Prior knowledge:
52% of the residues lie in helices and 0% in strands.
Amino acid sequence: MRTAFILGFFMAGAAGHAVANDVDVAAATELAKATGCYSCHSAKEKIVGPAFATIAEKYKGDKDAVATLSQSIQMGSTGKYGRVPMPGHSSLKAPDLKLLASYVLSTKP
């Protein structure tokens, strides 16, 4: 039984952002609102920055997607989706960065 649990845990992690399916959507939505994500992004349509679904599609199948996106959220980014830079959110702690990244990556087109 324990072996099946451990195997399942590693298989979920190996599936890229399959772990994102376990996102606490309510908490992630509140955090995204509180940090201003929705000022520039939406789930399905480009505003200033790309739609969350566009970001999720770009990172689909990338096993490092959560870490990569967490870093972009924390440090900001330039040039990934056009000329407008995304400001960093350096005050966010690692669990919040992971929650936001997982939330974005769980967005379906």
